[in-house]
Write a structure and sequence with these properties.
Blueprint lengths: L1 H20 L4 E2 L3 E8 L10 E4 L4 E6 L4 E6 L4 E6 L5 E7 L4 E6 L4 E6 L5 E6 L7 E4 L4 E6 L3 E6 L5 E6 L7 E4 L4 E6 L4 E6 L4 E7 L4 E9 L4 E8 L1 E7 L5 E6 L4 E6 L6 E5 L3 E7 L5 E8 L6 E5 L4 E6 L8 E7 L2
Antiparallel strand pairs: 1-2, 2-29, 3-4, 4-5, 5-6, 7-8, 8-9, 9-10, 11-12, 12-13, 13-14, 15-16, 16-17, 17-18, 19-20, 20-21, 21-22, 23-24, 24-25, 25-26, 27-28, 28-29
């Protein structure tokens, strides 16, 4: 009899939690949750996303599900699923070719699909663990981090690999300074940032990160020569001078940060953290950011995509025991 009472109580408790989590609006000073888009049948971890501004479609690397999910953001609906991936991690959209490049961590293959009919165009085989993807629209080059230490260079017109840059460890987030033809790469295994000369296609400098470890996401403020790095152990936000490689300031963040984006209108930073919050940092100066707000998201929702054309931040929330996989869409207040 006591067991039945406890079971009923537990069920009511879970229903209450589910009811609270299904509320459509989460208000904050800087942004509010305006909708949640379900990703039916998607299980496991969700990695990075890309966006087609013309059609307003988001492409989602559903790593644990071995699929790429296509979401129509105009109608807030999942419309297609590309299957037979192998742990898709990074994803890039090439607008001139109307193509999606998917980097598979499981086998190192980079698959290229049409963004119109989702048919495969070609594949590029890398040695393994293909991860983050960046696109240089000026020079028509795609960069893919992979393996135990490499950045592959892929021609965006032919989808052929044209170069390879060696690193000292597996690359996580990296950012391009197209005007200076430089790249900054987080290499957490070595607790450092590696600086690449893109014209020479080689590493020219290495900066040790001593204030914290597990340096995964980064944002580049190229105009002010600053690199903002998110670390997980301990959870810190570091500001690095790209002219000297020195860390200028450090501030505490929420746990398990995986993406950092900057709103150019306000200078605010948005950090999506697996601890269950979006940390909003206000820019006080080139060297200093102050935590101004924590927006509640969901536990494990650590990957995100900033869409400046729509003033939206989209956060990927994986399935848990209460709710299915969803994209949480936040409107940033102007």
């Amino acid at each position: 009899m006591q067991f039945k009472k406890l079971s009923i109580t537990a069920c009511i408790f879970l229903l209450c939690i589910q009811g609270c989590q299904s509320q459509p609006q989460v208000q904050g000073k800087s942004m509010s949750l305006i909708t949640s888009v379900e990703l039916p049948g998607v299980n496991g971890r969700i990695d990075h996303m890309a966006f087609d501004n013309v059609t307003q479609k988001i492409f989602v690397a559903a790593l644990g599900n071995n699929t790429v999910e296509v979401v129509d953001l105009k109608n807030n609906k999942a419309i297609h699923s590309i299957s037979n991936m192998n742990e898709p991690q990074g994803i890039g959209f090439i607008p001139e070719r109307k193509a999606i490049l998917v980097a598979n961590g499981g086998n190192g293959r980079c698959d290229v699909f049409s963004s119109e009919d989702y048919q495969k165009i070609t594949s590029i085989q890398l040695p393994g663990d293909a991860d983050n993807v960046r696109y240089d629209p000026i020079h028509k080059k795609i960069y893919v981090g992979y393996g135990d230490g490499g950045i592959a260079i892929i021609d965006a017109n032919t989808f052929k690999q044209t170069g390879d840059i060696k690193l000292e460890g597996h690359p996580e987030s990296f950012q391009l300074d197209i005007s200076q033809q430089k790249m900054y790469v987080n290499v957490p295994d070595k607790q450092q940032v590696e600086v690449i000369d893109l014209e020479k296609q080689q590493v020219t400098d290495r900066w040790k990160i001593t204030e914290a470890r597990a340096n995964f996401p980064m944002h580049l403020d190229s105009a002010n020569h600053r690199l903002v790095i998110g670390c997980r152990r301990p959870a810190r936000l570091l500001v690095v001078d790209t002219e000297t490689g020195k860390t200028i300031s450090s501030v505490e963040t929420d746990n398990d940060v995986d993406d950092i984006f900057c709103d150019p209108k306000t200078g605010n930073l948005y950090l999506s953290c697996g601890g269950g919050n979006i940390d909003v940092f206000k820019r006080l100066s080139n060297d200093n950011y102050q935590l101004s707000e924590k927006i509640v998201s969901k536990s494990g929702a650590r990957t995100s995509l900033w869409i400046p054309q729509l003033n939206r931040l989209v956060v990927a929330s994986p399935k848990n025991i209460i709710t299915g996989s969803t994209l949480l869409v936040y409107a940033v207040k102007e």
